[in-house]
Design brief:
The protein is an alpha/beta fold. Helices cover 37% and strands 24% of the residues. A hairpin with a 6-residue loop joins strand 1 and strand 2. Helix 10 crosses helix 11. The mean pLDDT is 90.
Length: 503
């Protein structure tokens, strides 16, 4: 009997609970918060902010401050040095290493056994549940899952304590039975050297019956291209004819969609977006026809939201989930079973509907261009690129953009550095379409572009092949946890890339 057929009833049991989100969101979220507060009442942080006296969300919002990584860093450092009961009960042994802050190269996010179970692994299981619900003919478990992973290293040389990419922590702690259904081997998945890992993953997976793949689109693309190089095949469907789904996340899929449809020309192929980060697992695309993701509200995560116009203010408005509006951009604030209390994760979201709560990731609180009052966010950039690619037949593989504050002629503009998988016949025409599309989706950008008075038409610099990968390689940042900064309000990143592009 098909293994998928045997497993299907187990996964489909979750669908009723997920569908309850539409009618009971506030009840569910208040319950999550109550449980988190009760569990952490006897921690150092719980004592400091009187968790045992908090009986409602309103009291929690009043007593517990908003936090960035900097505010929690001292607590996390104590945890990394082996102290127990600091932000969460017990001793935390795992820390997910992610991109740094203004003051530090890296952030170290606590990963507790409870957060692994009730958030990260529950998110992975629910992704399968929703996929099987939407695709009754799936044979997902009748083959192997190709899952990309990162690496880890000792944490301050403390016994059994490690820091690393979240994916490596998930691989280390996963049920051993799951390893029977996945490739590559654990040893290969945890290799540090990405070039060696990429080659070994491709060789180990080449002759397996791969039915599903999971990872960040940019790094998975690199692995798939290596599979083609080794196999000599013209597309991935020839290598793995039963491949049916890519569970992707980490970065926007828009620049990669056409590349994947060309690489995997199969009518049976599906794509499902997930929103999983070092800090938690937050969203899943619940319908193939709707790119918005459903906010997963019964994990160990309590959500709050800051209206985008209040981000950075000394006393911003902070709303619980049940007070948000559709169509507005919010910075997300999370409280989790890994001990992150009212933590500003740095992502911005926009709700597309409220029953159930569905959203798109609209950008990062620090990934935007607002040098001239234009307030350009990543969601604007993605829509503009989609229009320019559709009209010109171009395919973008990577990009970043930053302001040019004033050139020799006293003119200001946005400069885009774009690596094309398929270049447009006319780059200037592509720039015109992109510029006009940005004006159509962003009224502030349109106002600043009016008659070229404040802001001139954007400039496109074409990047040489593999420029962004080379930049990552020189910085020692290859692997699925590292992402290209799409929009920057300064020129630090783009200047590094332009220098490398001119070598």
């Amino acid at each position: 009997m098909s293994l998928t057929r045997l497993a299907r009833p187990f996964f489909l049991r979750r669908i009723d609970a997920i569908e309850r989100y539409a009618e009971a969101a506030e009840e569910i979220q208040r319950g999550v918060l109550k449980k988190l507060l009760n569990q952490a009442a006897n921690t150092a942080y719980g004592h400091q902010y009187g968790f045992d006296s908090i009986k409602s969300y309103e009291a929690f919002a009043k007593q517990c401050p908003l936090n960035s990584y900097e505010e929690l860093k001292d607590y996390i450092d104590q945890m990394r040095h082996g102290k127990s009961d600091i932000l969460w009960p017990g001793r935390v042994r795992w820390f997910a290493k992610s991109s740094g802050t203004t003051n530090d190269k890296s952030k170290f996010i606590p990963v507790t056994p409870q957060s692994l179970k009730d958030t990260h692994y529950q998110g992975g299981a629910d992704a399968v549940s929703l996929y099987l619900h939407n695709h009754p003919q799936s044979r997902l478990f009748d083959g192997r899952a190709l899952i990309l992973g990162g690496s880890h290293q000792p944490n301050y040389n403390l016994p059994h304590s490690l820091v690393g990419d979240l994916s490596s922590i998930l691989i280390e702690n996963i049920n051993p039975l799951v390893n029977l259904l996945r490739v590559p081997s654990k040893r290969t998945a945890l290799l540090f050297d990405f070039e060696e890992k990429r080659d070994r993953i491709a060789r180990e997976a080449l002759h397996k019956n791969v039915t599903n793949i999971s990872g960040v689109p940019s790094w998975m693309l690199s692995v798939l291209n290596r599979v083609l190089e080794i196999s000599g095949k013209s597309n991935i469907a020839e290598v793995w004819p039963n491949l049916e789904v890519f569970f992707h996340g980490g970065i926007a899929f828009t620049p990669y969609r056409k590349l994947y449809t060309e690489l995997i020309p199969s009518s049976r192929m599906h794509y499902m977006e997930t929103y999983n980060a070092s800090e938690g697992f937050f969203g899943l695309q619940s319908l193939p026809t709707d790119p918005a993701m459903k906010l997963m509200i019964d994990y160990g995560v309590f959500y709050e939201f800051i209206p985008l116009e209040d981000v950075g203010k000394e006393d911003p408005r902070v709303l619980p989930l049940w007070e948000v509006s559709a169509g507005k951009n919010y910075a997300m604030v999370i409280t989790t079973s890994s001990g992150l209390w009212r933590y500003q994760i740095g992502d911005t979201v926009r709700f597309t509907q409220l029953r159930p709560y569905k959203f798109i990731i609209s950008g990062r609180t620090k990934s935007f261009i607002n040098a001239f009052g234009e307030e350009l966010i990543v969601d604007n950039a993605e829509k503009g690129l989609r229009k320019a690619c559709a009209d010109t037949g171009a395919v973008v593989s990577e990009y970043t953009a930053a302001p040019v504050f004033m050139d020799q002629e006293g003119k200001c503009r946005h400069q885009w550095l774009i690596e094309f998988a398929t270049p447009p016949a006319d780059v200037q025409a592509f720039a015109d379409i992109l510029d006009k599309a940005l004006q159509n989706v962003n009224s502030d950008y349109e106002a600043k572009r009016f008659k070229d008075i404040t802001l001139q038409r954007l400039e496109i610099v074409t990047a040489k092949k593999d420029l962004f990968n080379e930049w990552f390689k020189r910085a020692g940042r290859q692997g699925g946890q590292h992402k290209v900064p799409r929009l920057c309000n300064d020129r630090k990143v783009i200047e590094q890339l332009l220098s490398l592009n001119n070598e």
